[in-house]
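Deliverable D5.2: sample structural annotation.
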Amino acid sequence: MIVRIMGEGQVKLADSHFTELNKLDDDLLAEMESGDEEGFRRTLGELLEAVRRLGEPLPDDALEPSELILPGPGASLDEVKDMLSDDGLIPG
């Protein structure tokens, strides 16, 4: 799966990593619903770091369609709320 982190670029990520990412996504959703800004910041950073660590960066000139788009590290809680589906940021 190709994942784009807004403002950073794309990474190719194996489907086998989505269990770990979904756990962080669930935590992020709970923190957003409770208005926990500090927890939201921490978990968003952990989620993005996991994508960077587990994924393989695509070259800057690659123009692959992104199957998943994640907010950048500076995104606000309201900006991320606008990106959410019923499953959070990551489907499944």
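Annotation notes: The beta strands are 2-5, 9-12, 56-57, 68-70. The first helix runs from residue 18 to 34.
The annotation will be released with the project's public dataset once the embargo ends.
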